[in-house]
Structure formats: C-alpha cells, structure tokens
Here is the input.
Amino acid sequence: MVTFFPMLLAVALLGYAFVSNVALAVLPHEPMVIWCGPRLGVFTTALIATAGTVAAAWTDHRLFARSISRRMGPGGTVQRWFARAPFAVLALSGLTPLPFFPFKLLAFTARYPRGRYLAAVAAGRLPRYLLLAWLGVAVRLPTWALALTCLLLLIPILRVFRWPTPNAS
Here is the structure.
C-alpha cells in the first residue's frame, strides 16, 4: 500500500522543479532536491526533479525559442563556440551550479532542435540531481538549515525587488 505523504511529496517536487526551472526562474531547486532525497529515495527524487526540469525546458522551448531566435539573430564568437558541440555545452552547463539561462539563450538563438535540447537538459540535470539527492541521504541536514539555505540563495534576487526609498527633496 502506498502512503499518501510520499505521493504528495513527489507531486510537490515535480511542481517545484518545474517552477524553479521555467523561463528565468529565481527559486533555488537545490535545497528541495536535497530535502526530498532521504524522503523519496535518491533515484526517485532525481527522476522526478529531472522530469519537472525537462517539462520546464519543453515549455521554455515551445514558448520562447522562436521569438528569441528572431530577436537575437545570428551570433558571433560565442555562438560559433556553442555550435561546435551544443549538446555537450548544454549537458555540462546543467551539471554545474552556474545559471542555466545564458546557455538556454544560446540554444534558442542557434535554433537548436527541441528534442535534442530536452535530451541535453536531461543528460545534464539527472546526474546533478542524483548527487544532490545522495547528499541529502549522506548528510542529514535539518529542515530549518535547508530553509535557511534557500533564503540565503534568494538574497541576490532580492536586489531586484528593492524597497522604495523616500525622496530626500
């Protein structure tokens, strides 16, 4: 018999992985994957997070690729570098903690095919999520520590939403 909590957690992880990876999302996904690792299992967590990420990548490609490629036009040196091995660039960038959106823009401006783009995203993110979920199992961090980590990772984004300062005049 399947209990309700793991199913609910799996759906929450899928949704969170989607929201934290779609468009120019600013939510950090690492703490959620680390937290779900010991609760859902390493492989289950990684597969669900990868599915949410691939769904977000499909959405991005479907909604933004054509308009971005039209607006950006042909690229220069960076675009030529990307064209040498686009799959490897996308997959390796998915493994790193670097922001993914510049690589996403490169793929869209190069008119990289959707199927290959999704495969590269999955190939890069699955090993990363496996590692993060394993970290959650190997190093049992308390929930408050992961929540604090999530808040700390949001600090750079908060600069965008500055409080208005009163005018001195």
Q: What stands out?
A: Helices lie at 4-19, 30-40, 42-72, 77-84, 86-95, 101-109, 114-138, 143-158.
